[in-house]
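User: Can you predict the 3D structure of TraB/GumN family protein? Sequence below.
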Amino acid sequence: MSVLSRLFLGLAFLFLLLGIAPSSIAKPLPPENCADRPFDKGRLWKVSKENTPPSYIFGTMHSKDPRILYLPGVVMQVFIASSTAVFETSLKDDELIRNQQQMLLAPGQSLRAKIGSDRFDALVRIASTYRMDAATLDRVKIWAAAAIISQPPPQGQDGQRFTLLDKELEKSAHQAGKRVVALETNQEQLDVFDSMPETVQLEYLDQAINENGQLDEEIEKMTSYYLSGNTGWIACNLEETLETVSPALGKIMTDDLIYLRNRRMVKRMLPELVNGNAFVGIGALHLPGDAGVLSLLEELGYTIERKY
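Assistant: Sure. Here are the predicted structure tokens for TraB/GumN family protein:
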């Protein structure tokens, strides 16, 4: 299973092209040898410090699965009561369109020429289910092609298009007149992929091509972990997957896409936590563990309390 389909629990922007998991859900089972870690169970956390109004951090899943869009009452309550809404990045339509260009090759370049005809033909066969023809696919970067096929197609079985929880929360925050803050720019998120050496991008693409057929099963497993609040299991599952990739790809998928971004997001959310009464929605994969956002905030003197 492509590692990025798991990492998208903590990376919102690329989901503008991506999909929906199956409609049924099985009782989740933990990954093998999954060790406990700090803050490894829960989706909503109260973050407080003396003489400051509390804020709340909610772990999201950047999926178009309609089950994800359902928010428990306690989550809606703190969201409605908040004065500031903080998200990983902006998912407003104009932002998405502007940054979509970064997924395309420079004029005159060809994906087929970069990856070879055999890889490209295999990719075209898969991309047809995403309603992408060969000419369109030939314009995208290697990492972008891998990202597209690392998620299910962007429509449900009935052809209905779905929205994202993160996008709906941002829209609701604007409509309610809340102050809306983005912790990262889309450019910052995509720069991580753009900086990947081509050899690593090709490894990522090969993995995505080979494992595309198991997407529904793996996405369903991640969804079951998320809905049951087992964010630590998501982290365990990622670690198991990374044992099979090169050290170079593994470093990017952990250090660059998780740990570095955890520290950056904590630094940027601190002013909002100082003011208090903030609702922070970030990918659930960023929450658990010693290097997770919640542990980093605890090190800074905040009291962390699970609410859901």
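Residues 3-306 form one domain. The first strand starts at residue 44 and ends at 49.
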